[in-house]
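#struct-queue
[09:14] JT: dropping the first one here, sequence first, then the structure tokens:
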Amino acid sequence: MSDSYDPSRDGAKMSFARDMSYGDYLDMDELLAAQRPLSGAHDEMLFIIQHQTSELWMRLILHELSAARTLMEEGRNPQVFKMLARVARIFEQLNNAWDVLRTMTPSDYTTFRKSLGASSGFQSHQYRLIEFMLGNRNPAMLKVHEHRPELHRRLSAEMQRPSLYHVALRQLEQALGLEFPAEVYRLDGPHKAHEQVIAAWTRIYRAPDEHWTLYELAEKLVDLEDYFRRWRFNHVTTVERVIGFKRGTGGTSGVPYLRRMLEVELFPELWHMRGGL
């Protein structure tokens, strides 16, 4: 007589002929059929899954940032704090994924690199949306998506909306009775540090107990950017480790291009004001 454990004895449902199963709910057949290597190279599967899972996490980031911006516009900051903390942890998850990809050596990568053609993470519309939502806006990047009109429209529409940081700055204005110059809220380019904004955040940090909600919001934004910067840095080191200084498959300069991206500041005033406290 077998003494194997039978979950049904404890009430577990074992038949799903008429009910939704785990695989049904997650659309598992379609999900697991999406990995289609174009070469016979063993490591191509790793490369595909690395990037597909990254895109899934980025989809969640966009879901959280979109909701956070709406709630912030409504002044519901406590809910926003939870969402921004979640986004920071998602970037931590994405950071950890680079450790897996770094198990692929340059020799491994060369066995399937030609199969990628001109495709590149540089072309990720979700990554670009994240940057646009956080304030790093470059209209030139829209051209990459002209072949997909629906994506181009979505990115163009985001360029017309205030960024998450813009909404935070409106709260800062209201709390301190200020009015920042129009250039602080430009929509057609990356946000640049402004002395009046630095001075305003400095006031918040010098009296945090008087402005606790904004103080906490500022720290949540810094935390998010901190993890985002780590993700970018790990991207650079992973690419350098795997392909050295070759050009990227999408035509970028590769590592030099990624290093330039390390200089981007999403919320510059929150960093620049620290030295003056």
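[09:21] JT: and here's the second one, same format:
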Amino acid sequence: MPKKKAAASGTNRCFGDDILRHVLSYLPLDDALQTCVLNTRWRDHWRHTTDLSLIFDDLSFERFKQLVKLFIQLRGDSPLDKFVILAYPESDECTYTNTMLLIEYALKCQANELIVFSHHSYDTFVLGVPLISQHLNTIHLRLVYLESSSLDFSHCPVLEYLRIELCRINARRISSKSLKRMCITDQCSFPEDFHVRIFAPGLVSLQLDDFRGLTPSLEYMPFLVTAYVGLGILCPELKDRSSHAYPVEEGVILHGLSNAVNLELIADYRTEKFIYSLDLKCCPIFDKLKTLLLNEWFTAIDLVCILQHSSILEMLTLQLENTKKLISAMGAQETIELSFVCAYLKVVNIECRKVDDGIHKIVNILTTCGVLRQQISIKNPHANSNCFSFQKHEQPRWRTPLAPEMCAQS
């Protein structure tokens, strides 16, 4: 019996230690270090905490430098799971020597997840060296200036998730063979004189939206399942087509997305939105595509091209505020009569505020392609128009499968 009690006591103690380390993971470094003087039981807890956030508020440069040195020296090489670092400006010139020491320390401790961000603009903290780790699985960068070598992830062979927000990207290429999920969003800045190439052949999920500069060029992604791409008003190529070379042979973005199973393509209604249309002239084949969401960037000819090259498409959603572009593009109807039938397309959702000539034209295109009228539903748009499906938290109010005013015109 005494042995059983001792064993139970040891188990409880171990469980209690895990709780203490979990609590310590939420403390600022300064406070976590001070817990080692509470008693002998607390002495080593902070050293073995695997989730650490090094976020400093109202510290002088000297105090920050001391803490970084003390932290690295006392903690040793105990493994890390998640490491959050606030890039701390250390002088009037905004150098980040000690922040880089912390990043290197995280990699040395075999961190699985690394989060680096800054409270300031992305012109302050520059990450200009490649990350080298056999253990790093997740990277999240925010408000960081990213130079070429830092976006070569060939030395992170198990990296699967990359999230970049509010960063300035100054590189010819973003590359990783191991990446499965990539998200570049929240006003990231790309160069304005060339298309950054994204090489991620293992990618399964992609979100690329709300960025400045030229649209990145996507290389072939054979395993892509879901992709969300949004073009905004801050893309210079959308303002002046003649000032930038266009890679006609393969296009900029749709070729890389051609293996997607679920695809959402959005563009801000205030732009000319020509990148998608030019890419479609390269005739990308979407032979795996099952669900597709478009907003009002497309012309009737664009829609025909997509349908013609999406042989197993099952569900189509169209978010439409203005259909003038649809009406102005002529010749699509004749193309349909000579081409194909959408044999798998069974659900079409059209989100619009008004059933006008453009909506009628879309319905005529779809019915000519073999879609039955009862398979076409018209609904009121969500309050946040021009958004991705995952951004819609409210379900819009559905109308009848085909609006009465359309039936009257049929």
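[09:30] RK: nice, looked through the second one.
[09:31] RK: The first helix runs from residue 2 to 24.
[09:31] JT: good to know. The chain is about 25% helix and 20% strand.
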